[in-house]
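Notes from the pairing session

We agreed to fold both candidates in a single pass and log them together. This is the raw record for the first candidate, unedited. Please don't reformat it; downstream parsing expects exactly this layout.

Candidate A
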Amino acid sequence: MAPAARTRPDMRLGFAGLGRMGTRMAANAARAGFDVMVWNRSPEPAARLATEVPVGIAASLGELAARSAVIVSMLANDEAARAVHLGDGGLVASGGAECIVEMGTISPELVTGIAAEASARGKRFLDAPVSGATQAAADAQLLVMAGGREAGYPDLPPVFGAMARKVIWLGQSGQGAVMKLAVNMLIHGINQTLSEALALAGRCGIDEALAFDVVESSAAAAPMLSYRRPLYLDEAAHPVSFTVDLAAKDVGLALDLARRHGVSMPQTRATLDVLDAACRAGFSGRDMASILTFMKEARP
C-alpha cells in the first residue's frame, strides 16, 4: 500500500502504460489520493484497473494530456516511448500536462530527443526509471533514479512518494536512463552467473534449494536473490516478473551505450549472447529466472 504522507490529492495525475509495473504504480497513486487518469494502447488493462481503484480512463493521449498536470509513463521500449511521446497526437505535442515523467527503461539518446522537443514546447521532461520488480511496485518500494535536480521538479516528490521508498536525483537529463541501464546490466549478469552456479551444483548432485541456501548466505548474496528465489526454484508456479526478451533489450541498450563511450564490457556481451540464444529457443516471454532452466539444458 502506498504511504499516505507527502501526497497531493488535488493533483491531476496521468498514467500512460499499464503493463506489469505501470498498473501497480498507477494503483498506488490512486490509493494515495491522487486524481488519476490512465491510458493504455489496449483498453483492457485500463478497464480492469478501474474496477479495482478510482481512476478515470482517457480515450487518447491527447485527452490524457489535456486532463493532467503531470503524466507518468511506464513504457516497455524505445519504439513505444517514441510513439507515445513524439508521435502524432503524442504527449509532447498535446496541450496540457506541463510535466512528463518517463519511468520505463529507454535509451539515453531517446531521452535527449524527447527532452529537447518537450522544452521547445514549454514542457518539462524527466527520465526517472525505477529499480524493483513487480512486488516492489505493488508495495510502493521502488527505487527511482531521476535524471535531473529535485529543485527543478518541486511537484514530483509527492508523486514519487506514492510509489517508491527512495529517490536519487542524478543531476542531469539522461543520467537516470544511463544509471538504469548500468543497474540492469548488473542484475542480468548476476542472473546469468547464478544460473550457471546452480546448474553446476545440481549437475554435481547438490539439491537446488540447498545450493540456493548457500548462495543466499554467502558473500555473493544480493537482495534480488531473496525476492526472486521462488521463481528460480519453481518458475512455472509463479507469475512472470521480468521477461527474457526485456532483459535482452536492456542489456543490448547498455552495450550500445558502452560502444559509444568506448567502454569494454566482455562479460555483458556474453550475457547478451545467452539471452539472445534463450529467446531463439522459445524463452522470450518467460521470466528471466528461466535462464536457469536454459543453462541446465545447454551443453558445452
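Candidate B (folded immediately after A)
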Amino acid sequence: MSQRPTLLVIAGPTAVGKTSYAISLAKQLKTVIISADSRQAYAGMPIATAQPSKEEMEGVPHYFIGHIDPKDGYSAGQFERETLHLLKKLFKKHQTVILAGGTGLYIDAVVKGLDEFPPIDPTIRQQLNQIHQDDGLRPLILELEENDPAYAKIVDKHNPRRIIRALEFIRATGRPFSAFRKNKPKDRFFTTTTILLERERSELYDRINRRVLLMQNAGLVKEAKKWYAFRHLNATQTVGYRELFQYFDGDISLDRAIELIQQNSRRYAKRQLTWLRRMDIDIRVSL
C-alpha cells in the first residue's frame, strides 16, 4: 500500500512570520501553499489582509488568495469543500502540501471536518440580523457571553457571521453552541503534521505595530476608502477597515484610527493564539 500524502499545517498568529516560513519550507520541499486565512481569501483587499505579493511568493504557487468577491461572502464550509477537492489534485503531483494561515476554524475544517448541526428556523437569523443592523454587535456579544462563555472566549468578536451563527443555535435549542462543537475528526485521505509558530509576546506586538505603519505607508487608507460604500459587508468588518471607516465618518482622527488598528490587531493575535493552542500541535517553532 502506498504511503498516504502529508498535509503540513503552518499555523500562528498574525505577523508572526507564517508567510516567509511557509515559502522557505515550500521551496525546500518543492511544493505549493494553500492559504488558510479567512481574510486573505477576498479580492481587492491586499493591504488590509496582508496578502503576499508575487515578489514575496518567490515563485511558489499559492492557492485561495484573493479568489473571492467580497460581495459574495465565504464560509468555513466552502473552504473545507474547496480545499479537499484541490488537495485530491495536488497530491497527485506532491507528496506534501502546505496549508498556512491563522484562521483556526479553517484549519480545523480541513484537518478534522466541521460538525453537523441541526436545522434552524430562518426567522431566528432574521431577528439576529435585525439586532445587528439596529444596535450593532455589542448586544449580540453580550448575549453570547452570557449563554456560552466558552465559545465567546475564542470566537472572533468582530465577525458578525460567526457570532450570529452561534446565537442561532443557542436560541433554537436552548443549549450552548460549544456543546454542538464535538470536534470529532472525520476520516481524511492524508496525514497531518501541524507546526505552530511562536514569538515572545512583546516581539510579536512590536511586529504588529510596525506592520500597521507599513500598511499605512503602502496605501491602506486609500484601499479602505474604496470599500467605504460597502462597509455593511461581512468581508469589510475587518481590522484595518472598521477603524478607518470611523475616521471617514469624522468620529476619530487618522492617528487615533491607526492606534486602534494596532490595538485591535494585537487583540486579534491573542484570540488566534487561544484557538491555535488548543489544536493538536506536533511541532512548536520559536522564531
